[in-house]
Amino acid sequence: MSEKDKESSSEYFERSRPKFLDWEPPTEEEKLRAVKARADAREAEYRRVTALAAAKEVARRGVFGRKSAKRRQRLR
Question: In whole angstroms, how far apart are CA 69 and each of 55, 56, 59, 60?
Fold first, then answer.
């Protein structure tokens, strides 16, 4: 190894320093953004599940509704 290829110990330790040591806590703005993102995701999931339940109910009423209508006509 030549003199040029060698790096100083301080350069080596600077390069190999673990990144987690430089961690900084999130700012209030970042915290608020994270809270809003979670709330938006929760709301989107609620809307999705509600739409699925409504579609399932319509399909169920479509299948069972015909039989009920026929039964009602026979009972009259």
Answer: 20, 19, 15, 14
3-state helix/strand/coil string of 26-39: CCHHHHHHHHHHHH
Residues in the chain: 76
Task: List, for residues 30-76, the tens digit of each pLDDT value.
Answer: 999 999 999 999 999 999 999 999 999 988 888 766 555 566 566 65
Burial of 16 (0-12, 13-18, 19+ CB in 10 A): exposed
Q: Give the start-to-end residue ranges of the domains of the chain.
A: 9-75
Block residue for tokens 């999705």: 48
Q: Which amino acid is at 46?
A: Y
- pTM for this entry: 0.53
SS3 40: helix
Residue with the two structure tokens 């390069």: 15
